Amino acid sequence: MADLIHRLRLRRRPEASESTQAGRSSLSPPQAAAWSSTRAERRTRGGSQEVFLFRHLLGALASLAIIAIVYLYAASGLLGFHVAHVFAALVALSVLGFTASIVSGFNRRFADPSLTVAQMTVSGVAMAYLAYAGGPFRALQLPFYLIALLFGAFRLTMRQQLAMSVYFIATFAAAMGIAHWVAPVPGLPAHGASSQPNGVTLVVHLALLLLLMSVIGGYVNDFRLRLRSSNLALKQALERIERIATYDELTGLYNRRVINEIALKEKKRSDRSGASLCVAMLDVDHFKRFNDLYGHSGGDNVLRMLSAVLRGTLRETEHVGRHGGEEFIIVLPETTHERAAIPLERLRQAISATTISGLPADARVTVSIGVAEYRRHEDILKTVARADAALYEAKRAGRNRIVWDGA
Predict the structure, then answer these.
(1) Please, are residues 382 and 351 in contact by the beta-carbon 8 Å criterion?
(2) Which of 6, 35, 71, 217 could disulfide-link 153, Cβ–Cβ 3.0 to 4.6 Å?
(3) Cα 16 → chain centroid
(4) Phi/psi at 352 (nearest 5 deg)?
(5) Are 199 and 135 in contact (CB under 8 A)?
(6) What's the farthest any 2 CA atoms get from each other in the chain?
(7) Is the CB of residue 308 less than 8 Å from the CB of residue 367?
(8) Residues in Cβ contact with 72 at an 8 Å cutoff, skipping those fewer than 6 apart
(9) Structure confidence at residue 372 (pLDDT)
(10) Quick one: pLDDT band at residue 213, thresholds 50, 70, 90?
(11) Segment 152-200, tens digit of pLDDT
C-alpha cells in the first residue's frame, strides 16, 4: 500500500514544477493569494489521488478479510469451495480494476473521481452472487453489506446512501428469488426445507440494517462536509490575516514591518557571505500637490501606478515595500554601489514616463531616490537612515534624481 501511494505521489510532482512556481511568483501578492485560495478550495472539494488510493486500498483490505471469512466457512462445509472461488475472483478483479484506474489517473475523467458509487455497485454484484449460491451462508453475509455502506459514509450523502441500500436489498432479494424459484442451485435444499431463516426474514433483516446504517452514514458524511467547510473558511480567514499582516492594502507591496525584516535577513546573509547589499529610499516628488489637485483618490492612483512600475521593473531577487505615506524601501541584495545605479536609474525613468489612471494624460510623477551601501556588521537600520539622509539630499538638490550616501 505504501509503495503504491509513493509511486502515485511521484506521478503528481510535475504539478508543482518550477514553471508553475515561476508563474505564481509573477502574480501580484493579492493575485497570488487569490490563486492559492482558489486552488486550496478546489483541492479540498475534489480530494487528492493519494486520498482516493488510500481509501480504495482500505476497502481492498476489507475485501480481503471478507474473502478469508468466506473461505473459513467453505472449509467448515457451510458452502462449497467453488462458490468461494468465484466470489474471490469477482472481488479480486474489481479491486485490480479500480486500483489501476486510480493509479493511472483514469478516475479523474469522472464526476466522482473517488469512484465510491461504482465500487459499491460492483461489490453489490459480488455479494448478490454469494446470496444466490451461498445457501445457508446468506444469513452470515448480511454484515458484509454494512461494511460496504461504511465505505461510502465518508463520501456519499444520506440520499445516496439510501439509494445504495435499496440497490443492495433489491439485488440480495433478486438473487435469493432466482436461487429458489427460477434457477435453483444444485445441492441446496428446496425453499422451505431448510431450518435456516426464510428469504423474507433475511430481506427484512437486511433492509432494517441497511436503512439504519444509511441514516448514520449520511449523518457522518454531512458532519464531515460541515467540518471541511469550516476548515476551509478558517484557512481562508488565516490567509486574509496573513495578507493584512504582510502586504500594504493600497499598493499590494510589502508593508514596513515585512520589508524591514527582509532587509535584516539580507544583512545577516551579507555578513555571512561577504556579498554586497544596497538599500534605497524612494519618495514621490510633490505628492501633496496630487492630493490637492485630484483629491485623495488621485493620490491613491499615483501610489498604485508606482507599485505596478516597481513590480514590473525590479528583478525577482530585489525587494520593495511601502515605508509609509509616499515613501518606499528597496532592498538590493548582492549589489554594489556601482551596479545599483543602472536598475535604479531605469526605475526613475520608467516612473516619469508612465501615465496615471484617472488623471490627465499630461500628469506625470517624478521620484527622488537616496541609496546607501551596507557596511559589514552595521545595524541595518543605520543603513536605512543613511539612505534616508541621501534621499533628503536629493530633495534639496532639486528632486527627480538619485543621490548616494557620502557622495
Answers:
(1) no
(2) 217
(3) 11
(4) -70, -20
(5) no
(6) 112
(7) no
(8) none
(9) 95
(10) low
(11) 877 788 888 888 889 988 998 898 888 878 666 555 544 444 445 555 6
**Contact at 8 Å (CB) between 393 and 287?**
no
Nearest to 329 by CA among 286, 272, 372: 372
Structural domains present in the chain: 2-11+27-239 (no CATH), 256-404 (3.30.70.270)
Rounded Cα distance between 187 and 221, Å, is 43
In this structure, what C-alpha cell is assigned to residue 4?
A: 503504491
In sequence order, the 6+-apart residues with CB closer than 8 A to the CB of 39 are: none
In the block, residue with C-alpha cell 515613501: 327
The CA distance from 348 to 263, in Å, is 21
Q: Among 63, 80, 62, which residue's Cα sits nearest to residue 71?
A: 80
Using alpha carbons, select from 8, 21, 56, 38 the residue that is nearest to residue 232.
38
| Residue 186 burial class via C-beta count within 10 angstroms: exposed 0-12, middle 13-18, buried 19 and up | exposed
Q: Convert the pLDDT of each residue in 310-319 to its tens digit.
A: 999 998 899 9
- Single pTM value for the model: 0.50
Q: Are 333 and 318 in contact (CB under 8 A)?
A: yes
Is the separation of the CB atoms in 357 and 366 below 8 Å? no
pLDDT level of residue 80 (50, 70, 90 thresholds): confident
Mean pLDDT, the chain, rounded, equals 81
Q: Which of 211-215, 329-333, 334-338 has the highest mean pLDDT?
A: 329-333
Place of cell 527627480: 400
Do residues 321 and 303 lie in contact, with contact meaning Cβ atoms separated by under 8 Å?
no
Q: Whole-angstrom Cα distance, residue 166 to residue 220?
A: 19
Spell out the long-range contacts of 170-176 with Cβ–Cβ below 8 A and sequence spacing 24 or more. 171/124, 171/125, 171/127, 171/128, 171/131, 172/127, 172/128, 172/131, 172/145, 172/202, 172/203, 172/206, 173/199, 173/203, 174/128, 175/128, 175/129, 175/131, 175/132, 176/131, 176/132, 176/138, 176/202, 176/203
Ramachandran region, residue 47 (left: φ > 0; alpha: ψ -120 to 50; beta: rest): left
pLDDT at 23: 41
> Which residue stretches of 138-276 are H helix?
138-152, 158-177, 199-246, 256-273
Residues 6 or more apart in contact with residue 94 via CB below 8 angstroms? 63, 119, 122, 123, 126
| pLDDT exceeds 70 at position 38 | no
